[in-house]
Design a protein that fits this description.
This protein is mostly helical. 37% of the residues lie in helices and 0% in strands. It has helices at 2-15, 25-34, 40-43, 63-66, 105-109, 120-126, 149-157, 164-177. α7 (149-157) packs antiparallel against α8 (164-177). The chain is extended and about 65 Å long.
Amino acid sequence: MERMLQLRMIVQHATMGLQQYAQCVGCHQTDYDGANDPDHSAAGFSTDCATCHSETAWDTFDHDNLYFPIYSGEHDGEWSDCVDCHTNPNNFAEFTCTSCHTNPETDNEHTGVGGYTYESTACLACHPTGDSDTAFDHDNTNFPLTNTLAWRVWTVMQMDLQELPRHVWIVTKWILMGQ
């Protein structure tokens, strides 16, 4: 039954054929204006509904896949309102981890972790899935370190100086070949 409802909604949207309703907000302006958890208008959310919603799941916002897993994993059931993490209701790009992950416990759990900083943006950078067991891997970020020119040069720098001429040739070859 659920699948039939989804299919019917997709067909209805596809067959409307009205140019003035090409944007979701053409039909759903009252939904946008009436949204209060969070208040879409006050928060300055886009009227492009598809940014957060789909045609088949209007009432659900896919926070887990779009941003951070809060409906699954370690954070499932740990919050009740958006403002638990997003303390500025006018800017949902701002978030906090430190209201729940307090000190001195958090500092103690990171003893010996190089580059550790007690800041929410640092939490997200090292724990993008919210899982404390997942080791930080630079290659899964926008700044991968392995298999790049910088990584290759660093690797050569760590080698025995007697082999340096051979390795300089290898790095030069990589550069010239665009690898």
